[in-house]
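Our preliminary data section would be incomplete without showing what the modeling component actually yields. Below, a chain of 254 amino acids is followed by its predicted structure, encoded as tokens that our downstream tools consume directly.
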Amino acid sequence: MRFRPCIDLHEGKVKQIVGSSLSDTADGRLQTNFETDRSAADYARLYRNDRLPGGHVIMLGPGNETAAREALAAFPGGLQIGGGITVENASGYLQAGASHVIVTSFVFSDGVLHRERLRKLVETVGSKRLVLDLSCKRVGSTYRIATDRWQKISELELDAVLLGSLAESCDEFLVHAADVEGKQGGIDRELVELLGKESPISATYAGGIRSLDDLQEVYEAGCGRVDATVGSALDIFGGGLEYDAVVKWHRKLG
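Predicted structure:
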């Protein structure tokens, strides 16, 4: 298990936003937990100095490309990038220093998995440079892939069959638990257990982590196979969980 750091960008600034509040309409629903004038590149240098590769830069909407590219340049090969990635721009971000591109809406939109688009992405950048975002919401006893800024619940069930099928086309999965993401209310243990048991490739869990105990729970529930990212809870994003303590915890895992 690894701790994966993050840099979330909105309107060119580093922010922490409750993901389920994002919308394509300006209806005032956006919930921002944190905002800073500290640059994305500063955070990237922090992660580089602490030897924490594999984190992700997520561009939430337009106006973030300059900040994102500055972060990639500050930690070349150390960060993945997502948000608006398509077959047309994916190679450019890899050339700018991203280790992987994280793909969401280009492949999953309007509640549908577009397999032909996924095929073209694999042809363009290769499966080993591709991360698929399988963010989901609980529906009854199942988890369903959430598309369109998590506003639309698809019929795609996150299970062993889907994970096995998609693993052939990518290097990793990134899975936000949309029901708890950004709320610092604890993890979705059942989702972590599912990923630990069923994912045939590396999977990173995001959502609800607020303490070292929560990180330890991810480690145990995922049988040490599921990585974790922490956002709003960290003190570097205005929360109460010490970033330095998380780094120390991470290093103890070896």
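The chain has eight helices and 16 strands. The longest helix spans residues 115-125. Preliminary results of this kind motivate Aim 1 of the renewal.
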